[in-house]
Amino acid sequence: MSRPGRIRSQRRAAPLGVLVAGALVPAIAFGGVWQYADANVPPPTTTTTTTAPPEPAPELVTDLLSYRRHPTPLAEAAAAREAAAALADQEQAVLDLVGEASCVRVVDGETVVLDESPTTPIIPASNQKLLVAAAAIEVLGVDHTFRTELRSVRADGGVIAGNVYVVGGGDPVLRTADVPDPLRYPAFNTTALEPLADQLVALGVTTIQGDVVGDGSRYDDEFRAPDWGDEISVPDASPYDALMVNDGLVNGNYGAVPERAASRVVYDLLIARGITITGSPSSGPAPADPALTTLALVESLPLEDILVEMLHTSDNNTAEMMVKEIGFVATGQGTRQAGLDTMRATFDRWGLPTGALVLSDGSGLSRNNRATCEFLAALVGDAPVSDRLVDVLPAAGRDGTLATTLLDTAADGAMRAKTGTLRDVKALTGEQPGADRRPVSFSVVLNAAGADDPAVFIPLWEAIVELVDAYPVVVRPDVVEFAPR
After folding, report:
1. Residues 302-338 as b or e (16 or more Cβ within 10 Å = b)
2. Per-residue pLDDT tens digits for 399-454
3. At residue 347, what are phi and psi to the nearest 5 degrees?
4. Does residue 206 lie within any of the structural domains?
5. Residues 310, 458: one domain?
């Protein structure tokens, strides 16, 4: 019984081995076919580019803790030292030309670029006119004008029964066309006097039954600063007054009393136009008579134009009359002292360094005037009116007293400044663009024997021009020079 069962088990095991063997045979065969096919496929064609490796950088020998590991600060410090050395060389070139009893200041805003005896009181010569111009801009205003009038009773049937008064209003540039200005720098922006006579003719006036009276009573009768000395004479500065025509020149001579000389000029103009005058030229104040009226008048150009004339030609009479006008407008007193006191008070109010300032006149002809380069540089650079003041100054190489000076230098057409000259005195104060084109203020005043000799002052002026033109000196940092090695 047991046999049949054993036989059944053997029969079940035989087919499983056959199946496994049967499965392996095709797999082996398929693998062989695949290997055969793969072996007969040609390998793909490829292009290979070979790049050579970069040359190895040289090994840095700079210590890790060296400052060279941070080269920018080193380069900047070296550039700053080089710039400072270059500026010092420029400054020394100026200082080598400045002697004792002289001063220099060059200033950029609040930065003092160069100083030599900046607080030493020196004689400023015609740089004094800068003070007058600055105060006039403040006290009078740039639109201020000077009026000259003809006053009398009204004409009746063409006849004026009484005197005609020529009332001066302080116009310093009243002129007639027939009298050329004999000065080296002739006046311009002048006020023509002829229209005064023409207006009287236009009113139908044919006869004046009286005198032609010049009235200069707006100012006092001090016609000359008391401390000028014998070296100052006409035409450097004529006798001046509130009524003055042609700088007081009449018939080829300078009149001792300006208002009387002016009345003579007006008298001649009226006669030349056919008006009959029974009296003669004379002088005196017009009476406070309500019957008197203004029949004719001429008015100057605005103050700004008059200051251009004064500073370009260094007009001494204009400066002295301007001082008195400042006094008249500020205090009602047309005197030199009232004007000078008003000027000082103005500068004090502005906070300028006036400790060493001595004011004796307006023109700068007096050797008793004193100023400092510190004050003068501040006047053109820091005063409230500095911009307007610089605008009315002559340009180097272009006009006025600087027309032929500093040609073909960096100052030519760029510097605006005022000159000053007396025996043994030479001054220059103004403004010039620096290397970055911002304005740099300066003042240089020489007080020494021979200072007014061009061989002495021109090299100094040129050295200052070069200093300002190079300022601020800029040297670009060379970082590569200080990089690690």
Report:
1. bbbbbbbbbbbbbbbbbbbbbbbbbbbbbeebbbbeb
2. 999 999 999 999 999 999 999 999 999 999 999 999 999 999 999 999 999 999 99
3. -65, -40
4. yes
5. yes
